[in-house]
């Protein structure tokens, strides 16, 4: 696995490939990285590319500039708030946010500055978050007179509980970086200039582990709040059948028996070549 850096631009978004890690940056600083139509379409394209490219073993999602994401695009909200316009927009959003949250590879998020409304929702779709000292989470929905969206009503109650979610959203509060960590929503606070360094390092660490098996586990975890005990046992059964048939399991077991460090990336890359999936050299 090489560390060749490849940068690709999309409308209001850019990606950078560093070895097994794909970096996604929201890139519309003039609009504080608000969720424009362009960002939605670009993010959907990138997520689909990741789904098809298993040489990407982890993702790091962040934003350019001083603001992570200011939430909904005010120009769009002003011009397109009739019922069918909103319905079509949310139908489109469902093709982005659910696949991003269910992506079968680990996703790390790096947040600098404010993440408002849907911007906070996007951060909460990720598996682990690194926050800079300037980071703030703000619901912002009721100030605008809209219900929380971008899966916030799914993620936040599961992460911090229903009562704390109500208190946060109804009060219009903001959480600073340390509060975000104290709530268990982020891994740690670092200086703003270290967010990308720490976030990419964490993504690299996850990429060097059994990334696809971790991706399978996160998909099962998403079912835990809606499933019965017997259903979760069945999911674990089927998940373990898949996990123990993987190249990552074979490598992990061999490394443990041989008392050496496992090479999950190498094992997965070799397996990808044999099963027709793209590899880093294809």
Can you tell me about this structure?
With 282 residues, the chain is α/β, with parallel strands linked by helices. The protein folds into 2 domains: 203 residues, 2-enoyl-CoA Hydratase, Chain A, domain 1; 65 residues, Lyase 2-enoyl-coa Hydratase, Chain  A, domain 2 (Orthogonal Bundle), CATH 1.10.12.10. 49% of the residues lie in helices and 16% in strands. Strands 1-2-3-4-5-7-10 form a 7-stranded mixed beta sheet, with helices on both faces.
Instruction: Give me the strand/helix succession.
Output: EEEHEHHHEEHEEHHHEHEHHHHH
CATH class of the largest domain equals: Alpha Beta
Beta-strand content: 15-25%
Stretches where pLDDT is under 50 for at least 5 consecutive residues are none
CATH topology of the largest domain: 2-enoyl-CoA Hydratase, Chain A, domain 1
Distance, first to last CA: 12 Å
Strand line-up across the major sheet: 1-2-3-4-5-7-10
Largest sheet: 7 strands, mixed
- Give the full name of the CATH homologous superfamily of the largest domain: 2-enoyl-CoA Hydratase, Chain A, domain 1
Query: In which range does the helix fraction lie?
Result: 40-55%
**What is the second-level CATH architecture of the largest domain?**
Alpha-Beta Complex
Give the tally of structural domains. 2
Question: Number of helical segments?
Answer: 14
CA-based gyration radius:
19 Å
> Which structural category do the helix and sheet elements fall into?
alpha/beta
Shape: globular
Number of strands: 10
Mean pLDDT: 93
């Amino acid at each position: 696995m090489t560390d060749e850096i490849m940068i690709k631009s999309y409308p209001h978004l850019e990606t950078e490939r560093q070895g097994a890690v794909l970096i996604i940056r929201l890139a519309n600083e003039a609009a504080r990285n608000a969720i424009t139509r362009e960002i939605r379409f670009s993010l959907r394209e990138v997520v689909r590319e990741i789904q098809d490219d298993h040489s990407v073993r982890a993702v790091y999602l962040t934003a350019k500039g001083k603001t992570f994401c200011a939430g909904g695009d005010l120009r769009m909200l002003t011009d397109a708030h009739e019922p069918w316009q909103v319905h079509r927009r949310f139908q489109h959003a469902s093709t982005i946010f659910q696949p991003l949250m269910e992506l079968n590879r680990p996703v790390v998020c790096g947040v600098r500055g404010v993440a408002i409304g849907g911007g906070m929702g996007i951060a909460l779709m990720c598996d682990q978050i690194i926050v800079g000292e300037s980071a703030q989470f703000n619901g912002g929905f009721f100030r605008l007179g809209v219900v929380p969206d971008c899966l916030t009503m799914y993620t936040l109650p599961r992460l911090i509980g229903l009562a704390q979610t109500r208190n946060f959203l109804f009060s219009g509060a903001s959480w600073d970086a340390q509060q975000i960590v104290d709530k268990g929503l982020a891994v740690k606070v670092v200086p703003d200039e270290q967010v990308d360094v720490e976030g990419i390092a964490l993504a690299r660490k996850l990429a060097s582990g059994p990334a696809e098996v971790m991706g399978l586990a996160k998909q099962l975890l998403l079912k835990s709040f809606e499933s019965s005990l017997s259903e979760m046992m069945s999911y674990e059964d089927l998940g373990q059948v898949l996990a123990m048939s993987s190249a990552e399991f074979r490598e992990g077991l061999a490394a443990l028996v041989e008392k050496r460090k496992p090479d999950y990336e190498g094992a997965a890359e070799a397996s990808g070549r044999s099963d027709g999936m793209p590899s880093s050299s294809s």
